């Protein structure tokens, strides 16, 4: 059963109501062993609006002084400007946010949960320069603990290095390097305006914006190329925790955010919203948690498959928009992975007709399954190697601190999820070939 989260949350609720936020049948609650969340304080009927927040209370580029925004060089990220405002904004304006800021997570929670703030030996990635810049640590050797989709690195084999002829936009790959780059760019930009900025103060506010923002585009403006620039903070709504298929309809009409129940809730139930359909690796990096059951979870075989493809095969896949983002899920392999496997044995003309969806002539589902299973087997080998390393680090008597053991336990559980996902994917691929 949930408990009252504390006086500061009651005070913030009073502030929210007094400023025009409409709260109907919900409240923040502390769930044992987990973070704060939103709970139904009474029975809530289907299609009932539980929460509405006017845009005037959001923290966005439109809600802070233009004189502040204009100080930053062109190309400064929205996240960087908002974090800089929380760090260096007019104290009178920041005082108006004090009731809200008092209920935000503390630095220790981010440091514990988000890999970007972990010791360098735990968060090793293919962005070694960014790692050195982050906190001055040297980049240790030894095993890679974070999954390849996060770190871009492997323990059990060497991926291809050097320039590739074909570039493509990846999904949920090298996630940590991308996040580090965003943070470093924001840090350099804020230093150009406020050279005496304290690193820890700024990065705390950057993490707040990163983990608690909602989608927002200024009225009359087109969507930015980078979705990370389409964001704003929504007071009170940031209590909601995430599940993929949340029974909560979230809408923004330019004037207010509304949250509507899409099923009936009973008093005492936790109410979730969806942050979007994201893999567990993405959730871990961006928000500092992952789900036990995530329908959107998957892993990518790009490093494995690209190493197995010849240059002409890559050309063929690129020509049909099938190169890269080779994903497996509990349902099996995606169409790009199946296309890559078919290319390994099919006649070229038959393959072209197949990927166009016109004919399955020349397709041998058993051969396709065997090839894909061979690729997945390499990922399973990575699971075995890394799980062994992590298990050593979490044994009683190991030299790691309790804080590090907690992080290693979390990564170990994630690797076991990935192992199970790969095994389930093999079964799904085999079932299709039978």
From TrEMBL:
Record-given protein name: SET domain-containing protein
User: What lineage does UniProt assign to this protein's organism?
Assistant: Eukaryota, Fungi, Dikarya, Ascomycota, Pezizomycotina
Domain of life from the UniProt record: Eukaryota
Q: Tell me which InterPro entries the record gives.
A: SET_dom (IPR001214), SET_dom_sf (IPR046341), SETD3_SETD6_MTase (IPR050600), SETD4_SET (IPR044429)
The family database entries (SMART domains) matched by this protein are listed as:
SET
Check the record and name the Gene3D superfamilies matching this protein: set domain protein methyltransferase, domain 1
Q: Which residues form the SET domain?
A: 24-276
UniProt GO MF annotations: protein-lysine N-methyltransferase activity
């Amino acid at each position: 059963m949930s408990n009252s989260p504390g006086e500061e949350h009651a005070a913030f609720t009073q502030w929210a109501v007094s400023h025009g936020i409409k709260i109907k049948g919900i409240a923040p609650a502390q769930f044992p062993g987990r973070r704060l969340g939103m709970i139904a304080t009474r029975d809530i009927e289907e299609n009932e609006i539980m929460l509405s927040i006017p845009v005037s209370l959001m923290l966005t580029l439109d809600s802070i002084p233009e004189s502040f925004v204009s100080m930053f060089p062109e190309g400064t990220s929205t996240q960087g400007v908002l974090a800089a405002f929380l760090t260096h904004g007019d104290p009178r304006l920041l005082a108006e946010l004090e009731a809200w800021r008092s209920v935000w997570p503390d630095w220790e929670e981010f440091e514990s949960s988000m890999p970007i703030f972990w010791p360098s030996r735990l968060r090793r990635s293919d962005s070694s320069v960014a790692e050195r810049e982050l906190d001055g640590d040297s980049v240790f050797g030894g095993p890679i603990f974070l999954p390849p989709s996060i770190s871009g690195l492997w323990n059990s084999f060497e991926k291809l290095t050097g320039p590739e002829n074909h570039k493509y936009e990846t999904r949920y790959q090298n996630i940590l390097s991308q996040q580090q780059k965003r943070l470093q760019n924001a840090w350099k930009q804020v230093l150009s305006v406020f050279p005496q900025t304290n690193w820890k103060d700024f990065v705390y506010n950057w993490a707040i914006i990163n983990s608690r923002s909602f989608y927002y585009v200024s009225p009359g403006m087109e969507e930015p190329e980078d979705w990370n620039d389409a964001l704003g903070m929504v007071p009170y709504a940031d209590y909601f925790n995430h599940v993929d298929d949340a029974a909560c309809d979230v809408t923004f009409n330019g004037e207010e955010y509304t949250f509507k129940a899409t099923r009936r809730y009973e008093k005492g139930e936790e109410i979730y919203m969806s942050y979007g359909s994201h893999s567990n690796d993405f959730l871990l990096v961006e928000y500092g948690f992952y789900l036990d059951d995530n329908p959107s979870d998957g892993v990518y075989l790009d490093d494995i498959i690209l190493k197995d493809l010849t240059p002409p095969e890559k050309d063929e896949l690129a020509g049909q928009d099938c190169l890269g983002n080779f994903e497996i899920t509990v349902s099996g392999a995606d169409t790009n992975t199946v296309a890559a496997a078919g290319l390994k044995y099919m006649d070229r003309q038959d393959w072209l007709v197949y990927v166009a969806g016109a004919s399955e002539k020349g397709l041998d589902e058993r051969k396709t399954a065997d090839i894909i299973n061979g690729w997945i087997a390499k990922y399973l080998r990575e699971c075995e190697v890394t799980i062994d390393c992590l298990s050593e680090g979490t044994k009683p008597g190991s030299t790691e601190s309790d804080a590090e053991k907690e992080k290693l336990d979390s990564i170990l559980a994630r690797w076991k999820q990935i192992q199970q996902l790969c095994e389930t994917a093999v079964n799904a691929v085999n079932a299709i070939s039978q």
